[in-house]
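lol ok so funny story. i was supposed to be doing the assay writeup but got distracted and ended up predicting the structure for this chain instead. priorities right. anyway since i did it might as well share w the group, maybe its usefull for someone
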Amino acid sequence: MALYLKAAEILEKAESKQGALKTLVYDSKFSNIKQLFALVCETQKFSSVLEEIIESTKLLKQTKLRMPLAKVLVYDLLLGQGVKCGGSWKTMMMKHRPRLQAVLARMKVKKKVSRNEDLLPASVQQRVGDQLPRYVRVNTLKTTVEDTVDYLKREGFTYRGQASKLDDFILKGKNFVKDLHLPELLVFSPKTDFHDHFLYKAGHIILQDKASCLPAYFLNPPPGSHVIDACAAPGNKTSHLAAIMRNKGRLFAFDLDAKRLATMSTLLLRAGVTCQQLANKDFLKVDPDSPQFKDVEYVLLDPSCSGSGMVCLRDDPSSDDQEKVQARLASLASFQLRCLNHGLKFPRLKRLVYSTCSIHGQENEDVVAACLQQNPNFRLVHLLPQWPERGLQPLTQCLRASTAKTRTHGFFVALLEKHSEAGNKKQEPVVQISEPEVTPPSPPTCEKRPASSEEESEASETEDKPTPAEGQAEGTPGKKKRRKRKKKKKKKKAAAAVE
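and the output, tada:
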């Protein structure tokens, strides 16, 4: 019964816009996160259908149940795998099952459909139709892409090579391909389940959406570097950073929730991560000038957001809810901007990735634009020119992701890079983010790491130092020396004339 009580609690909070569903699930401290997340997502998806069935049968009046709990119970009874609890509650639901089934059958007859999914509103059906592939990131701390592919082939999977276009992601059965952008990502058909697979349990593979892999991929900290993952739990991006760093260097990971941090610690242990330093701490209270962080050059910031890009979440509030939604977005954007500004304060910072699983410009481009105005010594890096979905104008250097254009969850990524002080005096922030000439060279695509190579990092260090020519042009020591030499020559000539 604990599953249904917790699911009902989260469903009620999600439907009243008290938080993103994914965040609410992870914050719930429930033992089986996967089971809880699936139940809440599916119940929410069929919410309008379930509500109609419950009201038609007057179930609430007869059982004294509240609507959120009734929804999760009726979902599992009629549309799921059956009620999983025992005792009096299961007896009660089984008593009402014939009437509930009769109403569901009448609804199908009335709408002339045979499948449960066909009862969903058109907007929800569209999202159901946009089934995402199953993305699997190979954990290079424990294995290689080649060995993983060979292992899966021996298990009966069919490898179709590296994808060359998005249509190659339309897969069925046990076919799979290698992603066309991220070299360590494999793509499978939507219903492929690896949760009970040996490779997953041993930490050789990480189940992570492609869009969620982009932040660490773009930050690309070299081995031996000092890196901060500002809002780290549940830890997939942290383990990705550690793999890119080859477990060499220091990886500081912060999160406010002690329970989530404990879960994350278990995940990192399974993934073979050893370079981490976890802290149950608010990132905004971390002192950038602390000696502990004096060598931090890379920051990954994926702060709390609306979660509106998550496929299973509904984002179609009524007009009555618009005021509450806008107020919540404004509050989130304010928090996100504070985090972003704070992240740029680390004295040796070279690059920072900002990402959200939101589709709202208020949390994405608006936050980045405001930050650039307040931090003119940073500029945007142009990410993957061939990526099909760009940031909203004028921030087209950023990336967006969506089910329709990239076959991922909705996502946003921006990479901010520190540049020379001399450039700050000559260029305005708005020009920096809209003019191509102030953007760094376009990063290489496909197999090579984009936009964050060691060569580019070294170039950034060079740019921060004025050249000898700049020193002579701006300073006066060179002029003073020339004046002294002229005076000496005049004195010698005068002395010679006297002699």
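The CA atoms of residues 238 and 494 lie 75 Å apart. The two ends are 113 Å apart (CA to CA).
back to the writeup now i swear
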